[in-house]
Amino acid sequence: MLFRSWQVDVPYFHKETDSIHVDLGGGSAPRNPFQAGKLICADIKDWRDPTQTQNSEFLKIDLRNRLPFDDCSISSFSAFDVVEHVPRVELVDGLQTYPFIQLMSEIFRCLKPGGIFIALTPAFPHAAAFEHPTHINIISEGTIQYFVGVGSQALENGYESNCRFELVLQQWQRGAGPFESQEHLLFRKLIEGDSKTILYARLRIF
Fold first, then answer.
1. How remote is the C-alpha of 48 from its chain's centroid?
2. How would DSSP label each residue in 142-163?
């Protein structure tokens, strides 16, 4: 499995040697931004590499389905340019489903207490949110609020959402970064020693 340095300098790393990071939609170049002890690449295409080591694993999965992980078993998730491809609404056997809401709930279910989910996505009102024909889930600054704190209550009834993330930082970025020193300090201050499940979102201009 091919590894590469993550594009954004993240000022936090897992301390546990048995930590597991899942990179959703990682393709042939999965990211391990928090330097977890084990990296799992989960993608709908088969990018399996026969040279992968015991510290890396590939899983071919459809993000519209239940994630193949136990409750509270994953240290962190990442989704780089992924969630914009996950449908908001689908009909399955004549029933209306909500794959994006279900994915967010699945990530929350699988994360350990204090676990981290970081997402980077092109977002409204910038053109990158619409330009690619496969962008079917348009994200805005307000979208994340439906998955954090009291805002998540709006999706509990009728949508089977169980998300109660804590949003520690949401910002616009142009290109791939990197962070400035002030953001380094903010991120470290909010993350270290916190037992809540974290959502750390970045919105991309292009």
1. 21
2. TGGGGGBGGGGGGGTTTT----
β-pairing, 20-24 with 38-43? parallel
CA distance 11 to 109: 25
Structure tokens at 123: 């977002």
Q: 3-class DSSP state for residue 130?
A: helix
* AA identity, residue 187: F
Query: Is the pLDDT score of 21 beyond 50?
Result: yes
What pLDDT digit, counting tens, does each position of 187-198 carry? Answer: 555 555 555 666
What is the C-alpha R_g of the chain? 16
On the 0-12 / 13-18 / 19+ scale of CB atoms within 10 A, 174 is exposed
User: Mean pLDDT over residues 164-175, rounded?
Assistant: 79
Q: Provide the β-strand partners of residue 170.
A: 201
Residue 94, helix vs strand vs coil: coil
Average pLDDT, the chain: 80
- DSSP 8-class letter at 192: T
* Strand stretches in 69-110, DSSP E: 74-80, 90-92, 95-97
Residue 1 has pLDDT above 70, yes or no: no
Query: Which comes out higher in pLDDT, residue 43 or 156?
Result: 43
Residue 81 burial by Cβ neighbours in a 10 Å radius (0-12, 13-18, 19+)? middle
Residues 191/198, Cβ–Cβ less than 8 Å? yes
